[in-house]
Amino acid sequence: MHIVLVEPEIHVNTGNIARTCVCTGTPLHLVHPLGFSIDERALRRAGLDYWQWLTLHEWQCFADLRAAYPAGRFVFIETVGNRRYDEIAYGREDFLVFGSETKGLSPLLLEGQTVARIPMASDARSLNLSNAVALVLYEALRQVGFPGLR
């Protein structure tokens, strides 16, 4: 599995997601621009002592990420998805793509793609990004047998 965050804005969410990625052996892909710094000083100040074990990839734009993995399967998670996240049959090398906390994913990015949603009350805007990532990632890992995890 791979987690992709497109233009994340809140460092605390990204830190929580990074920790989830370390705990599951999942690479994290950050698509710029970021709403925060991930330089060594900022990481040290935030107490992210697990960051050294994170497999991190940074991309200037989503098109660069797609070009680097032309055979990759990308599953987009967005409130407008036409299928529930648990109705997707995930593969071990899937890319789970999440948008920024305030903007989500661009409708242009979603055109013609596999787009899943997390069920929630109709008057709720969305789950916290780090919670959404953990929920979907663990379902995907469950489906493929939690490879490499005890």
Describe this structure in words.
The chain has a single domain, classed as 3-Layer(aba) Sandwich (Alpha/beta knot), CATH 3.40.1280.10. It has helices at 11-24, 40-46, 62-68, 107-110, 129-143; strands at residues 2-6, 28-31, 56-59, 74-77, 83-84, 95-98, 114-117. It is built from five helices and seven strands; from the N terminus they run βαβαβαβββαβα. It has 150 residues and is of the alpha/beta class. It has a seven-stranded parallel beta sheet with strand order 3-2-1-6-4-7-5. It starts with a strand and ends in a 7-residue tail after the last helix. Helix content is 31%, strand content 18%.
Topology:
Elements: E1 2-6, H1 11-24, E2 28-31, H2 40-46, E3 56-59, H3 62-68, E4 74-77, E5 83-84, E6 95-98, H4 107-110, E7 114-117, H5 129-143
Parallel strand pairs: 1-2, 1-6, 2-3, 4-6, 4-7, 5-7
| Order of strands in the sheet with most strands | 3-2-1-6-4-7-5
- Class inferred from helices and paired strands: alpha/beta
Could you tell me the radius of gyration in angstroms?
Answer: 15 Å
Q: Low-confidence parts, pLDDT < 50 over ≥5 residues?
A: none
For the record, the CATH architecture stands as: 3-Layer(aba) Sandwich
Beta-strand content estimate: 15-25%
| Envelope shape | globular
- CATH superfamily, by name, is SPOUT methyltransferase, trefoil knot domain
- In sequence order, what are the helices and strands, one letter per element? EHEHEHEEEHEH
Distance between the termini: 16 Å
Return the domain count. 1
Number of β-strand runs:
7
Q: What top-tier CATH class fits best?
A: Alpha Beta
Q: Residue-averaged pLDDT, rounded?
A: 93
